Automatic annotation (TrEMBL):
It comes from Rheinheimera nanhaiensis E407-8. The gene is cyoE. This is Protoheme IX farnesyltransferase. Converts heme B (protoheme IX) to heme O by substitution of the vinyl group on carbon 2 of heme B porphyrin ring with a hydroxyethyl farnesyl side group. Its EC number is 2.5.1.141. PROSITE patterns: UBIA.
Length: 303
């Protein structure tokens, strides 16, 4: 094989390994962990701890994503959205992907345990277990509430970030977990409506398959309303100020508007538009928490 061709195939292989880690999902997970770290203390947290925690949480999340590719390879191979994934297509073997996941997990755990603290290391490992084992191997195939329960693992990063800095589990961090926990169902079910036939073909009991598209749309509306309320909590407990309150209200009104359109006036793009907006919503919401933390505007209390 010529050097040029060899190089090209190495680049392809590196891309496949990167794809295993679901990099965009992990990027958003790490952002939420990072916000947890910054909100844990009034000023700036210790830089070395932030770097180690970011790396450790990122590596364990990436490992969880890679395990998901191995476990789900048969169903991935049958769905239009996932059929060309590296393990499903056979570009990487199960053994290669599993060894990769194991290396990421061990490295991440050692970094967290030795450079951050034991609590964060164990909680992050528990989150990996929650997603890669409890959700992927069991819940996903068992109940349409799979993503509601399994969503807890993906909601954990702000608490992991917070624990990395303080060494404890704080009530304020739990509010951030509640936000992502409530956000996950409208995030996923909007996509599941668009991909309903894929999920039906592989017998995955996703809500639009088991309870129908109209019911799922109604539940999405309810969850976006619930999310509006849950997002008020950081302001109501005095953790965040007016910038967050205003931004969060606007983001949630827009999310509710997407959900309303999806239910009562849909076109062929409404489900994907709602799914895509969910990602912008969570990203901007967490950036707002960060901005608000550093530029505190006096809270508007009614006494
Ligand atoms: C159990 C909980 C969750 C489920 C079932 C779920 C499901 C999904 C699915 C099926 C996709 C499409 C992936 C693709 O097309 O390859 C997706 C995309 C995405 N999810 Fe989630 N998700 C969950 C939680 C989360 C969490 C907690 C975050 C971040 C905090 C997140 C961030 C994202 C992002 C950024 C994308 C876009 C990825 C891309 O465009 O490549 N998700 N999600
Ligand atoms: C350590 C830690 C914080 C772990 C959490 C890791 C993690 C990657 C959470 C994100 C959840 C997610 C992308 C679910 C989709 O899985 P799916 O199987 O339903 O979607 P797919 O069909 O696209 O694979």
């Amino acid at each position: 094989m010529s050097i040029a061709i060899k190089r090209l195939s190495n680049v392809g292989r590196a891309k496949d390994y990167l794809e295993l880690t679901k990099p965009k999902v992990v990027a958003l997970l790490v952002l939420t962990a990072w916000v947890g770290m910054m909100l844990a203390v009034p000023g700036l947290p210790d830089l070395l701890t932030v770097l180690a925690a970011t790396l450790g949480i990122g590596l364990l999340s990436a490992a969880a994503a890679a395990i998901n590719h191995v476990v789900d390879q048969r169903i991935d191979a049958q769905m239009a959205r996932t059929y060309s994934r590296p393990v499903a297509k056979g570009r990487l073997s199960s053994k290669q992907a599993s060894s990769f996941a194991f290396s990421l997990a061990i490295t991440g755990f050692i970094i967290l345990y030795s450079l951050v603290n034991a609590l964060t290391a164990w909680l992050t490992l528990a989150s990996l277990f929650g997603y890669a084992v409890v959700y992927t191997m069991f819940l996903k195939r068992a109940t349409p509430q799979n993503i509601v329960i399994g969503g807890l693992a993906g909601a954990m990063p702000p608490l992991l970030g917070w624990a990395a800095i303080t060494g404890s589990v704080d009530g304020h961090a739990l509010l951030l977990v509640m936000i992502i926990f409530t956000w996950t169902p409208p995030h996923f079910w909007a996509l599941a409506i668009h991909r309903r036939d894929d999920y039906a073909r592989v017998n995955m009991p996703m809500l639009p398959v088991t309870h129908g598209i109209e019911f799922t749309k109604s539940v999405i509306c309810l969850y976006t309303a619930l999310l509006f309320i849950v997002c008020l909590l950081p302001y109501l407990v005095g953790m965040s100020g007016a910038i967050y309150l205003l931004g969060s209200a606007l983001l949630n009104l827009r999310f509710m508007q997407h959900a309303w359109k999806l239910k009562f006036n849909p076109d062929s793009g409404s489900a994907m538009a709602t799914f895509k907006f969910s990602i912008v919503h969570l990203m901007v919401l967490f950036l707002l928490l960060l901005v608000d933390h550093y530029i505190k505007v006096a809270p508007i209390y009614v006494s």
